[in-house]
Amino acid sequence: MITAAQLRAARALAGLDQKTLAEIAGVSLPTIQRMEASPGIVRGVVETLTKIVTALDAAGIELIGENMPSQGSGRGVRLKVPPPLDGGSTTGSGARAPKPADSRRG
Q1: Phi and psi at residue 79, in whole multiples of 5°?
Q2: Which domains can be identified in the chain, with CATH numbers?
Q3: What is the pTM of this model?
Q4: Cβ–Cβ < 8 Å for 76, 64
Protein backbone atom coordinates (compact mmCIF):
# COMPACT_ATOMS: atom_id res chain seq x y z
CA MET A 1 0.00 0.00 0.00
CA ILE A 2 1.12 3.53 -0.76
CA THR A 3 -0.54 6.76 0.26
CA ALA A 4 -1.01 9.78 -1.99
CA ALA A 5 1.24 11.82 0.32
CA GLN A 6 3.91 9.12 0.18
CA LEU A 7 3.71 9.06 -3.63
CA ARG A 8 4.05 12.86 -3.85
CA ALA A 9 6.97 12.87 -1.40
CA ALA A 10 8.73 10.00 -3.17
CA ARG A 11 8.41 11.73 -6.52
CA ALA A 12 9.69 15.02 -5.09
CA LEU A 13 12.61 13.29 -3.34
CA ALA A 14 13.58 11.69 -6.66
CA GLY A 15 13.41 15.09 -8.34
CA LEU A 16 10.74 13.95 -10.81
CA ASP A 17 7.75 15.91 -12.02
CA GLN A 18 4.48 14.11 -12.63
CA LYS A 19 4.99 13.92 -16.39
CA THR A 20 8.45 12.38 -16.08
CA LEU A 21 7.29 9.79 -13.54
CA ALA A 22 4.41 8.86 -15.84
CA GLU A 23 6.79 8.42 -18.77
CA ILE A 24 9.31 6.35 -16.78
CA ALA A 25 6.56 4.17 -15.30
CA GLY A 26 4.73 3.76 -18.59
CA VAL A 27 1.43 5.13 -17.30
CA SER A 28 -0.60 8.19 -18.25
CA LEU A 29 -0.11 11.61 -16.68
CA PRO A 30 -3.78 11.73 -15.57
CA THR A 31 -3.18 8.46 -13.69
CA ILE A 32 -0.34 10.00 -11.67
CA GLN A 33 -2.39 13.15 -11.07
CA ARG A 34 -5.41 11.15 -9.90
CA MET A 35 -3.35 8.96 -7.59
CA GLU A 36 -1.56 11.94 -6.01
CA ALA A 37 -4.86 13.77 -5.48
CA SER A 38 -6.64 10.82 -3.88
CA PRO A 39 -7.31 10.87 -0.14
CA GLY A 40 -5.34 8.38 1.92
CA ILE A 41 -4.23 5.11 0.37
CA VAL A 42 -3.85 5.14 -3.41
CA ARG A 43 -6.26 2.84 -5.14
CA GLY A 44 -5.79 1.58 -8.65
CA VAL A 45 -4.98 -1.35 -10.85
CA VAL A 46 -2.27 -3.44 -9.19
CA GLU A 47 -0.23 -3.55 -12.40
CA THR A 48 -0.25 0.27 -12.61
CA LEU A 49 0.79 0.66 -8.97
CA THR A 50 3.57 -1.88 -9.52
CA LYS A 51 4.87 0.09 -12.51
CA ILE A 52 4.99 3.28 -10.46
CA VAL A 53 6.71 1.64 -7.48
CA THR A 54 9.23 0.01 -9.84
CA ALA A 55 9.97 3.37 -11.50
CA LEU A 56 10.47 5.02 -8.10
CA ASP A 57 12.73 2.16 -7.01
CA ALA A 58 14.82 2.61 -10.17
CA ALA A 59 15.08 6.31 -9.28
CA GLY A 60 16.57 5.35 -5.90
CA ILE A 61 13.45 5.61 -3.76
CA GLU A 62 12.72 3.07 -1.03
CA LEU A 63 9.07 3.07 0.00
CA ILE A 64 8.77 2.20 3.67
CA GLY A 65 5.59 0.65 5.01
CA GLU A 66 4.06 1.81 8.26
CA ASN A 67 5.92 0.41 11.29
CA MET A 68 8.46 -1.24 8.99
CA PRO A 69 12.23 -0.77 9.21
CA SER A 70 14.13 0.65 6.26
CA GLN A 71 16.12 -1.90 4.28
CA GLY A 72 18.41 0.68 2.71
CA SER A 73 21.41 2.53 4.00
CA GLY A 74 20.94 5.95 2.44
CA ARG A 75 19.35 9.07 3.81
CA GLY A 76 15.60 9.28 3.87
CA VAL A 77 12.47 10.83 5.24
CA ARG A 78 9.79 9.20 7.34
CA LEU A 79 6.45 10.73 8.28
CA LYS A 80 5.71 10.41 11.99
CA VAL A 81 2.22 9.85 13.28
CA PRO A 82 1.19 13.10 15.00
CA PRO A 83 0.52 12.89 18.73
CA PRO A 84 -3.12 12.83 19.80
CA LEU A 85 -4.66 16.19 20.58
CA ASP A 86 -6.05 15.19 23.98
CA GLY A 87 -5.11 18.41 25.76
CA GLY A 88 -2.60 16.68 28.02
CA SER A 89 0.26 16.69 25.56
CA THR A 90 2.90 19.41 25.65
CA THR A 91 4.24 18.61 22.19
CA GLY A 92 2.87 18.58 18.69
CA SER A 93 0.51 21.01 17.04
CA GLY A 94 -1.51 21.43 20.24
CA ALA A 95 1.33 23.23 22.05
CA ARG A 96 1.19 26.98 22.34
CA ALA A 97 4.14 29.28 22.01
CA PRO A 98 4.80 31.58 24.96
CA LYS A 99 3.65 35.15 24.57
CA PRO A 100 6.46 37.59 23.78
CA ALA A 101 7.48 40.03 26.52
CA ASP A 102 6.00 43.50 26.28
CA SER A 103 8.84 45.64 24.86
CA ARG A 104 7.24 48.88 26.07
CA ARG A 105 8.05 48.10 29.69
CA GLY A 106 11.33 49.25 31.02
Answers
A1: -85, 125
A2: 4-58 (1.10.260.40)
A3: 0.68
A4: yes
